[in-house]
Design brief:
alpha+beta, 4 helices, about 25% strand
């Protein structure tokens, strides 16, 4: 008699496990229907963000109010409002990293940090990116390469190596969360 009861009890246990698993799966699908799908970052979006950065930097040097313009460019292109930004500017040695918007602003137009002469005030007439390669993920992207800055005063081109990281911000736009620039190594 014990064996006759054991088989139905095991069978009921298996069925109840399947029912709860099916229910959990349905609950997960229902919650996923309410979440917006993640839009993978494309190479074209990264290249557009690079163009925006280049035009933004040039516009700072051309502006009647470079500090205000730099603040707008940083707000538009960097992710300081939503998270951490790892920013290592090209011409920074005493304070090599700029963890806040105010420190980034100082680098671009001078002010808060003594070594800052205002990189964006050169002024530059052209900035061209030569991308080495991309890493594209769902919500982040990284790109490394060389960019060239053309000085308005001398018309000379300065070669700088870079790595940029991007994240998709809450508004859907790409924002810089990693910016590392350095002059090429010389022997």
């Amino acid at each position: 008699m014990f064996k006759k009861l054991l088989v139905p009890i095991i069978f009921l246990g298996i069925l109840s496990g399947c029912t709860s698993t099916a229910q959990s799966s349905e609950d997960n699908n229902a919650s996923n229907e309410h979440s917006p799908p993640v839009q993978a970052i494309t190479q074209e979006e990264v290249e557009e963000a690079q163009d925006s950065w280049a035009q933004g930097l040039i516009s700072i040097g051309e502006s009647e109010n470079p500090e205000q313009r730099a603040s707008e460019v940083i707000d538009e292109l960097y992710n300081y409002d939503e998270g951490t930004v790892l920013f290592k500017p090209t011409k920074a040695s005493e304070i090599p990293f700029r963890a806040t918007k105010e420190e980034a602003l100082s680098y671009f137009v001078g002010g808060a940090i003594q070594e800052d002469d205002g990189f964006a005030l050169e002024p530059w007439t052209k900035i061209r990116f030569d991308n080495h390669n991309f890493i594209l993920r769902d919500n982040t992207a990284s790109v490394a390469g060389v960019y060239y800055f053309t000085s308005k005063e001398t018309e000379e081109e300065t070669k700088v190596e870079y790595t940029f990281g991007y994240t998709r911000a809450e508004d859907g736009k790409l924002k810089i969360d990693i910016h590392h620039s350095s002059l090429p190594y010389e022997t």
